[in-house]
Amino acid sequence: MSRRLFLQVAGGLAAGAALPAAAQANRILPVQDIAPLIEKITGGRPIDKRDVTVELPSLAENGNSVPLRIRVASPMSATDRVTDLHVFAERNPRPLIAAYHFGPAMARAQVDTRIRLAVEQRVFVIASLSGGRFLSGETHVVVTSAACIDEGI
Amino acid sequence: MAIARLQVPSTVRAGEAVEVRVLVQHPMETGFRREADGRAVPMNVVHSLVCRLGAVEILRAEFGTGVSANPYLAFWIVPPASGELVVEWVDDAGAKGRVAAPIAVS
């Protein structure tokens, strides 16, 4: 068997083996409907999809601890500031990861933390601004070793 | 009593932004994990954490199970006045923790 043929066969087998596992993970952890949670935050007001940067590694080796940085382009002045951040991961068993409420001494609309991600998914952040406006941003992450899906597998 | 670390510069020039870094030692049990004998480990996470400088609330955070074990949080503040920076938290079992560091604004 030539090296090329071996690699083609082995690659095909690996891809075939990987697919059902991924499909199974998606079956167990479907995208949850976070619309009611968002509705509770915004009260149905519109969200602008801009100015919120969600920094995550594009490939996370371990879903148990994924570094996350959220930055919102905001002057953080007394009249124009970010008051709250809400972080969602729709394919986590509990999609609301964290909420942050900023007091007046915050210098920047930025937080760094570490989060758990069950599977490859998008991480979605809503920023509430003073004056009742809302911004959002999102990032897609690939997770190779998932967190918190021991149950049922 | 949980162990925690709070890192912040001890002296700050007035109006200067400084980074506050907090690390709380806590397993952040999701409730999805089981012991070797099959018993479910009950959910127990630090559900809320508050950072204050004197009487001023700087940041309040609510965590779910999506926050990693040993929750880490970093953010930037402009300390309005000298005082003690205090971080307090509560977990689902009702255990409370507190860590503090003085800040001098010059």
Give descriptors for this structure.
heterodimer, A: 153 residues, alpha+beta, Immunoglobulin-like, 2 domains, five-stranded mixed β-sheet, three-stranded antiparallel β-sheet, 2 helices, 22% helix, B: 106 residues, mainly beta, 51% strand
Describe the structure.
The complex is a heterodimer of chains A (153) and B (106). With 153 residues, chain A is of the alpha+beta class. Chain A contains two helices and eight strands; from the N terminus they run H-H-E-E-E-E-E-E-E-E. In chain A, strand 7 and strand 8 form a beta hairpin. Chain A starts with a helix and ends in an 8-residue tail after the last strand. The mean pLDDT of chain B is 93. Chain B has one domain: Immunoglobulin-like (Sandwich). Chain B starts with a strand and ends with a strand. Chain B has no helices and eight strands.
Compile the SSE list and pairings:
The complex is a heterodimer of chains A (153) and B (106).
Chain A: H1 3-28, H2 35-42, E1 52-55, E2 59-62, E3 66-72, E4 82-89, E5 96-102, E6 106-115, E7 121-129, E8 134-145
Parallel strand pairs in A: 2-8
Antiparallel strand pairs in A: 1-3, 3-6, 4-5, 4-7, 7-8
Chain B: E1 4-7, E2 11-12, E3 18-24, E4 46-53, E5 56-63, E6 72-77, E7 83-91, E8 96-105
Parallel strand pairs in B: 2-8
Antiparallel strand pairs in B: 1-3, 3-6, 4-5, 4-7, 7-8
Task: Compose a concise summary of this entry.
The complex is a heterodimer of chains A (153) and B (106). Chain A is an alpha+beta fold. Chain A has helices at 3-28, 35-42, and strands at 52-55, 59-62, 66-72, 82-89, 96-102, 106-115, 121-129, 134-145.
